[in-house]
Structures are given as C-alpha cells and as structure tokens.
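Lab meeting minutes (informal)
Scribe: AK
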Amino acid sequence: MVKNVDSSVVSHEGRVVEIEGTTVRVRIFSESACSGCHAKGVCGGANSVERIIDAIYSQEEMSSDPIQKGDPVNVIMEEKLGWKAILYGFFLPFIVLLAVLFISNALGAGEAKSGIIALLSLIPYYLILWLIRKKIEKDFVFRVEKIKIKY
C-alpha cells in the first residue's frame, strides 16, 4: 500500500526477502489503493503486482532495532526522485523526438521519413541512458524503515 508519510516522500509497505550488509531487498505488493494515490504517477510500484526493491538501511537503525528476513518495512523514496525518473524516461525523450521530427521535416526529409528518423533518434538516447545507468542509479536511493508492530 502506498502511504504518503509527508508531502515530500512516497512510501510502500513490503516484506524483507534478503539482507546483505546495509542493503535490504524488499518485496512490495501493489494494491488497488494505488489507483487513488496522488503519487501513482511517480511511483513505479503502481503498475505491477509484485516488485523487488533494493533499499538502504542505516547503521544507526541497525544497532537500535535490527531488521530480519520477513519483517514488515516501509520503503521510502523522495517524491522529487520520481519526478526525476519521469524526466529521464519520458519528458527528455519526448523533447528529442519532437526536435528531430521538426528539424528533419524542415530540412525536407518529408513527413514519413521525418517520423522514422525521429523514432530512430530515441535509440541513441536510450543507449546513452543505459550506458550511464550506474551514475544515475546513485541518485535513486530508496531507504527502508522497520514497521513497529503494536500489540
């Protein structure tokens, strides 16, 4: 379930499936509540039934209340990171597509050729994005916090 902890973060509830150092792998389940969430546009979890996310668990949290396999946790992402993902994945390629379409059409390539050239221009864009993925991944950090169960 997506919860808005505050206005700048998006949180998904999940279960720990693996722990390796400070990296925690969490299984997240999307529920029908995602359709009513205001953050569904920036959240990759809203479009799938199940997803595994790698998240960071801080040393301070580990010493005070360690996470175990199977524990319920919240995976937290800053909302601005979701917008950054939309920028890289959708908005910038759209701008590239339109720019190449108009430029090639203005240079006399014709509508059909311009359309094909514009579509083909996305191949280098996504190839470059794939080549710099390690650098981009450093910006997209998910945090995890243990859910306190009240009895």
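Next up, CB showed the second protein from the same session:
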Amino acid sequence: MISRIKAGMLAWLVGAGSLVAHEFWFEPSSHFVVTGGTMRVALRCGMDFAGDPRPLDTTLVLAVRRYDARGTMDLMPRLGEPPTPEALALEAPVAGTVLLALDSAAKSLTLPGDRFTHYLQEEGLDGVIAARRAAGTSDEPGRERYRRCIKTLIRVGEEADRTLAVRTGQRLEIVPLVDPFALKVGDALGIEVTFDGQPLAGALVRAWHRGPGASPDSTASVTRHEVRTDAAGRAEVRLGKTGEWMLSLVHMVPVTDDPAHDWDSYWGNLTFALPTR
C-alpha cells in the first residue's frame, strides 16, 4: 500500500485532527463501451487512487460537459434532481472517444503553517514554499481556495477520433498528445499541461495505476510514479501495465480578489485505461 499524508477537501474529513483525503476523479464502470451501449460514470474521493463514491451534487459541481464526435453536451441539467445520482448513465450511440470534463465549485481550506508547508512539499509546489519564506509567512496558516478540473476518457467501439485532444477551457488541464487507448505496455503517453490556456512548466504530475479487475476501494494493487513538465508544459508518462490510470497535479497562484484567502489552487485530473491486448 502507498502511504502518504495529504491535505484535501474540508468537507470530507477522514478523522479528528488528521489531514484530509483529497484525490478526486471520474470513475467509469469501464473505459471501454460497445457502440449503442451505456456508460456509467461516478465521482470518487480518496487517497492513492482508492476512495468512496461522491454524489453528483450541484452544490459541488459547477460545470460538467460531454465531448464526442457529435460535439459538446452540457450535462448539468442531469444533476440536482432528487434523488441526487451517484453515477451518470450516458448512452453511447456513436463510435469514437468520449471525453467528460467537470469543474467544481470553489471551496475553502485553512491549514496550520507546518501542515500547509508539508502539503506544498508533497505536491511539489516549491515556488509557493519560496514565496511564503520570502514574505516571512511560512509559520502562518495557509488560507486556500481550491477547485477541481477533472476529465476522463472512454472508448466507444473500435474507432478512434481526436476528441481526446479537445481543449475544454478548464483553467488547469491535462491534454494527452496521443491516443492512450492505442498504446501498449511499455509505451509512453505524451501529455501537455496548461493553465489558463498556456503551457505550465515544472508541474509535478503523478501517474497512478490500478490493475485490471482491482477494486476502486482498495490500494492493494495501486502504484504510482512522478514526472515534471518541461518548459513547454509537456511530459511523458511511461505506461508499464494494463489497467486503469490516473494523472493528477496541483497548481497554486496568489489570490488577488479576496482578503479571506491567500492562495487559489487548482487540482487537475485525467483518468483513462490501457487495454489488455
């Protein structure tokens, strides 16, 4: 099991006095669907690519969209009608790639200075650590406003298209440069990370893997490795195993419009699967 302590979503405490689990991702029932079939996609929150389902709640979700060969579809009208769905059931009438993108509403989190620094170290946010040190605020609480920018890829049928490379307009975005469904074990997936549409250099990207058939509630088969983006915001993730993959990163910028917060953070996430061949 992978062990790490991370700060996260205030609403989902994992114990009194502890830090909070904060990975947040799309979990399709499968990343492969037959043409004409139905895909079910849920949200999960937890640590180390293992967690619990979260309702698709309009108090949490600011926007959710579907992209495929037919264009773009706003899925927000499907949320918020009692009972709140724990998964979206979506038809797959055309072959190709389906991209789902979700933006969360902003939430607040305040951590003591030492815990905030540890969180920054875990996420590779060296620039923020240096800025706090230069300002003499390293020991002060970290007052953060955070948002989620998550995506997932699903292959419908056997045909490929370029939907996977659609720019969704999310503030923080992980964009695959090749089709991950066409890769095989040992291949590298090239990605580009952007913030406000511009390449994000030096970002720490975590690549999580869960083996075929493994439970999303357990970390027993989960492994991870890390890469950093280059000056062009690009990196390569070596896909060493078949099964489900999750890429995640955090980017943080100073708050300029709210005296109650010091930092805005954006959490990017992309899930997909490497098929068994």
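CB comment: Residues 1-21 have pLDDT under 50 and may be disordered.
No objections, moving on.
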